[in-house]
Design goal:
By secondary structure, this protein is an all-alpha fold. The protein has six helices and no strands.
């Protein structure tokens, strides 16, 4: 196989995504100026939309029935809460009221979600490793879909994030 910057293990790929977004949020915290903040928020939103989509299309279905159902259901709802903030931030300007507050709340939501997926005791990643899941095949599928979505983001742009579990009135 050719050298690849992508981790082979699907959970390593997802964890690498988590680290990248954590870094982007940290950079936002120290950013000054509307232009710098807006650029970081665009990156954060793109990364989160792609990550949520590959988890919902590939990872979560692969582990359904093999991990605690409540934990998986909660992950979907957390994604939807993030998606609502992502969509608002993508439509907002950095000088608008609540812009920084929305980024902060999104950061805290993602921090909580990551903790439940990979850091707290009996997290989804631990449950996945204990289940009968081919992590290398999962990684290949996740990496291929992620690359496809990132190309779309760079060329046409991604559509607004679609909540799967939350009903948004008037939408």
């Amino acid at each position: 196989m050719a050298d690849s910057p992508q981790p082979k293990d699907g959970l390593q790929l997802l964890a690498a995504d988590h680290r990248k977004v954590e870094d982007l949020f940290a950079r936002f915290e120290s950013a000054s100026g509307a232009s710098a903040k807006e650029k970081l928020v665009r990156q954060i939103c793109t990364e989160l939309k792609v990550h949520a989509q590959i988890e919902e299309e590939i990872y979560y279905p692969a582990i359904r029935g093999k991990v605690e159902a409540d934990a998986l259901d909660e992950a979907y709802v957390e994604h939807d809460s993030a998606k609502l903030l992502i969509n608002e931030l993508e439509e907002a300007e950095p000088d608008e009221d609540y812009y920084d507050a929305k980024v902060k709340v999104l950061s805290e939501l993602i921090e909580h979600h990551v903790k439940e997926e990979e850091k707290q005791r009996d997290n989804l990643f631990q449950q996945t490793r204990a289940a009968d899941v081919d992590l290398e095949a999962l990684g290949e599928t996740l990496a291929a879909r992620k690359a496809e979505l990132m190309r779309l983001a760079e060329t046409e742009g991604l559509p607004a994030a679609q909540p799967a579990t939350l009903q948004h009135e008037g939408a």
